[in-house]
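TEACHING EXERCISE
Course module: macromolecular assemblies
Task: Read the component lines below, then compare them to the predicted structure of the full complex.
Student: A.B.
Group: 4
Components provided:
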Amino acid sequence: MSSTFDTIANIIAETCDIPRDSIKPESHAINDLGIDSLDFLDIAFAIDKAFGIKLPLEQWTQEVNDGKATTDQYFVLKNLSARIDELVAAKGA
Amino acid sequence: MRIEYFQLIDRIVDLNLADRKISSEALVPTSSTIFEGHFPGYPLMPGVLLIEAMAQTSGWLVVAMNRFQRMPFLAAVKEAKLRTYVKPGELLSIDAHLEHDGSGYAIVEAKIRAESKLICDATLTLRVLDFPNAEMEREMRDRAAAIGLTVEALADG
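Instructor-supplied answer key:
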């Protein structure tokens, strides 16, 4: 699995005191790992710092609320990793 | 400082949007009903209100950064250290620096000094949301103007 996943898995493990071994690419941050919105802010902050990006959490939330996206697209960790890779690539473009 | 009304900041003394930092002043009143309980015979500014003063200063910074478009709400307090007592009548200088401007949240480092001595410091997380209603937005703008934080002042910032 990509280093992006490893980085965010380590961040989640450290931030939320979740055993690293239980964090899988298929894990849903909210539904499987039980991360609430406040803890996710800490994770977002750490991800923003680690990758030099700004996770568009408000945009994602709006898309989910509007039925234009599912939480799986953003909060299943392999998908979150892909979104981060896209943001990093866009930053460098 | 109108401590009972949670109006803890008296005035904004400096605002630097480019450096993402703000400084405010707050004079702890010499008497207050709060001091009757905290503590009887030994009045002290409650530590939670020192944190609130840092949060309010941080909030004004975030409001200034977004030009009064959105409202910050305190969400988390980390690494808070209350280093010494604050007594009635002390003048507090509060500094805040925007560490990170996230999507819907902000991370701010804040500290309070009195006569150059560090009183307390903390890292604060603020959720940044739309104003819940027009009344609150209006009240916030009025309060901001009263302490010297205006849209006009921001134009110069």
